[in-house]
Structure formats: structure tokens, C-alpha cells
């Protein structure tokens, strides 16, 4: 939307343009204090700007995660879902990842975040009657190389994981041909991928799932502690691009995130109350996420046949359509499965 279309004084519009704010969605995702810092406007001017931006958003979808959380738009309760490929975990998520919004999956190294992301890249290729979206996935790597060997193992083991699917259907799917891999070493290449490559693949119907692994890597490496304002600006630009793609193409967006230590657990509202870690990037990023999940390694080991696995727990930290709950899970050759009655 053009800023001139808003019912604001030319002085406020000029300040917004000097601050290089590109959209009303960027405005509504910033606090009043941040807007004052960026624009140099008074508090009363900032309040006028926020009011006008919120009104414009109500008239012109797509919407932001913050607005959805405030209940200004229809619930995602009955929306499209992408199955995880496991009934136990799908039950926790009421069908799987919701389409059109950002889902964050955080956890410590080795928790199984990438394992679950790969599993979703295969699940999305199944038809709707088997929990998929009948399309491929775009997997954006920002730090580590793509785990191709593990993917190949998951593909070979699909008949074991997806016993609900006819073997003839599984054998007819060319899984590896429908996963598009992009390596982005800096924020510039990440933005190019989201503004050019991703829209092209989505518009052609070649992909229906976006995965970013991981969102914290670039923002942690490219900014120092005193660069928080520019980092937040880049985070908003990044999240706006993800929101736009998710909404326009009704696509689930999965962002894998790292975690940081929590020193005051009584104030840990961004992660599970029982954990000593919290997802990285703070409130600036948390306000852009619709669904926050965390995957934790537990101390117990479970066995099955000739396999053993450290027990994991997948927890819902927040989501507008889900209660705070969790399920135990384990990583097997065929992928991540929920574990019932692990006690």
C-alpha cells in the first residue's frame, strides 16, 4: 500500500519514508518506542501512525501474525494442515503444521529439529487424503550443508513410517526430485531467495512447504550486540517476506531456530517453563511467529528391536489454536515417531 493512501499528515509520511519502512505490516509489528527511535516522531504522532496502519491492515489482507494473535482475523482452527507423518505428533498439533503462517521449531543441537523438517519435506508430497499437499518443498540452508544421506535413508524407510499409505503410492513418488535446496550464506542471498526463487517455485506449484534452517544463524553472525535496531529491521523484512509467501500461496512455513540460555526462569515466557533455554532472537522475532514449538532431549533412552534412541519431547510453547502441551518422541531409522506411555 502507498503511504499517501493513509489518512496521515505529510510530516508523518515523510518521517516514515526517511525511516525506510516499506509496509504497514512493518509498522504494526514495531513497538511505539521503536517507531519513535526510527522515525523521530513524537509519541502522539506514532499513535496516529499505528492507528492508521492497523486500519489499513484490516482493510487489506494478508495479515500479520501479531494481528492474528490479537483475534482481529478469522482463526486458523479449521485451516489447511500438513501432517508430520506420525499420528501421535499430529494429534498434538491437531493435524499438523498450519498453512499460511510461520511455525517455529526450536531446540538445542541434536534435539532432532532437522530430522523433523526432513520428514515434513517428504510428507508434503503425499496427496491430501494422506496428510500431504501434493507438492514439493524448498529447503533453505543458512549454516550446515544439507543432510542428503539422512534424507535418502528416510526415503528408503517411508514404507515403515507411513504404513497407512499404499505401498504402490509410495513407490510412485519421486521424493528427492521434489525437494529444492538453496544455500544462503548471508542475509542478502537469503532475501534474493525469498523474493525471486521461492515465489517462482510456489507460483509454478512445484513446492508447498518452505523450510529455513536456521533462522538464527545469519542474524547472530552478521550483527553485534549494539546493532539491535538494524537487526530488528532486517528481522521484520525477513518475516514480512515469509508472511507474504505463506499467505499468498497458502503454504506452511517452518523456521528452525537455535536456543539461548535462560538465567531467570521465572521470566521465561518465550519458552517452556520447565526448560533452562529459550528460542533465540528475542521478542522482535517471537512477535512474528504464529506457532512456537520446542524439541528437547530428555535423559531417558528407549529401545525398539535393534534400535535405541534418546527420548525427545515436542512441546507447544504458544499457538492460537493449540493448548500448551507436549508429546514424547524418539528418532528411529524411518524418522521421528511419538512414544506413548514412556513412563
Q: What keyword list fits this structure?
A:
14 helices, about 350 residues, DNA recombination, 2 domains, Rossmann fold, DNA polymerase, domain 1, alpha/beta, DNA-binding, two-stranded antiparallel ribbon
Provide structural commentary.
The chain is an alpha/beta fold. A 9-stranded mixed beta sheet has the order 5-4-6-7-3-10-11-12-13, with helices on both faces. Strands 1-2 form a two-stranded antiparallel sheet. It has helices spanning 10-18, 24-28, 32-39, 43-59, 65-69, 87-92, 113-123, 148-156, 158-161, 167-172, 187-203, 215-222, 228-248, 282-286; strands at 81-82, 97-98, 102-106, 136-141, 179-183, 207-213, 253-257, 259-261, 277-279, 291-304, 307-318, 326-332, 335-338. It has 2 domains: 3-60, 5' to 3' exonuclease, C-terminal subdomain (DNA polymerase, domain 1, Orthogonal Bundle), CATH 1.10.150.20; 82-338, Rossmann fold (3-Layer(aba) Sandwich). The N and C termini lie far apart (54 Å).
Please write out the topology:
Layout: H1 10-18, H2 24-28, H3 32-39, H4 43-59, H5 65-69, E1 81-82, H6 87-92, E2 97-98, E3 102-106, H7 113-123, E4 136-141, H8 148-156, H9 158-161, H10 167-172, E5 179-183, H11 187-203, E6 207-213, H12 215-222, H13 228-248, E7 253-257, E8 259-261, E9 277-279, H14 282-286, E10 291-304, E11 307-318, E12 326-332, E13 335-338
Parallel strand pairs: 3-7, 3-10, 4-5, 4-6, 6-7
Antiparallel strand pairs: 1-2, 8-9, 10-11, 11-12, 12-13
Helix pairs in contact: 3-4, 7-8, 11-13
By CATH, the superfamily of the largest domain comes out as P-loop containing nucleotide triphosphate hydrolases
Strand fraction equals: 15-25%
Rounded to the nearest angstrom, the distance between the terminal CA atoms is 54 Å
The oligomeric status of these chains comes to single chain
Amino acid at each position: 500500500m502507498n503511504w499517501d493512501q493513509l489518512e496521515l499528515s505529510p510530516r508523518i509520511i515523510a518521517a516514515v519514508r526517511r525511516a525506510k519502512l516499506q509496509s504497514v505490516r512493518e509498522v504494526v509489528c514495531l513497538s511505539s518506542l521503536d517507531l519513535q527511535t526510527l522515525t523521530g516522531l513524537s509519541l502522539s504522532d506514532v499513535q496516529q501512525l499505528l492507528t492508521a496502519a492497523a486500519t489499513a491492515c484490516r482493510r487489506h489482507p494478508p495479515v500479520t501474525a501479531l494481528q492474528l494473535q490479537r483475534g482481529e482475523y478469522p482463526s486458523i482452527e479449521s485451516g489447511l494442515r500438513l501432517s508430520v507423518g506420525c499420528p501421535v505428533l499430529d494429534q498434538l498439533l491437531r493435524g499438523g503444521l498450519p498453512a499460511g503462517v510461520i511455525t517455529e521449531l526450536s531446540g538445542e543441537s541434536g534435539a532432532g529439529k532437522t530430522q523433523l523438517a526432513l520428514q515434513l519435506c517428504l510428507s508434503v508430497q503425499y496427496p491430501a487424503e494422506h496428510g500431504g499437499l501434493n507438492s514439493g518443498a524448498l529447503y533453505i540452508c543458512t549454516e550446515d550443508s544439507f543432510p542428503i544421506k539422512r534424507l535418502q535413508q528416510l526415503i528408503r524407510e517411508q514404507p515403515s513410517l507411513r504404513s497407512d499409505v499404499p505401498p504402490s503410492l509410495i513407490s510412485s513418488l519421486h521424493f528427492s526430485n521434489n525437494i529444492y535446496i538453496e544455500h544462503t550464506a548471508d542475509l542478502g542471498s537469503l532475501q534474493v531467495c525469498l523474493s525471486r526463487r521461492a515465489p517462482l517455485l510456489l507460483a509454478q506449484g512445484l513446492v508447498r512447504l518452505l523450510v529455513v534452517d536456521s533462522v538464527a544463524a545469519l542474524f547472530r553472525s552478521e550483527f553485534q550486540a549494539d546493532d539491535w535496531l538494524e537487526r530488528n529491521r532486517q528481522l521484520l523484512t525477513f518475516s514480512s517476506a515469509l508472511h507474504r509467501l505463506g499467505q499468498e500461496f497458502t503454504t506452511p512455513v517452518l523456521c528452525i531456530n537455535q536456543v539461548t540460555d535462560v538465567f531467570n526462569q521465572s521470566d521465561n515466557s518465550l519458552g517452556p517453563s520447565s526448560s533452562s533455554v529459550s528460542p533465540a532472537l528475542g521478542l522482535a522475532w517471537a512477535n512474528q511467529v504464529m506457532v512456537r514449538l520446542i524439541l528437547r532431549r530428555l535423559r531417558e533412552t528407549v529401545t525398539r528391536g535393534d534400535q535405541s534412541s534418546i527420548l525427545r519431547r515436542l512441546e507447544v510453547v504458544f499457538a492460537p489454536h493449540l493448548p500448551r502441551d507436549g508429546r514424547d518422541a524418539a528418532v528411529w531409522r524411518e524418522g521421528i515417531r511419538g512414544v506413548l506411555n514412556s513412563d
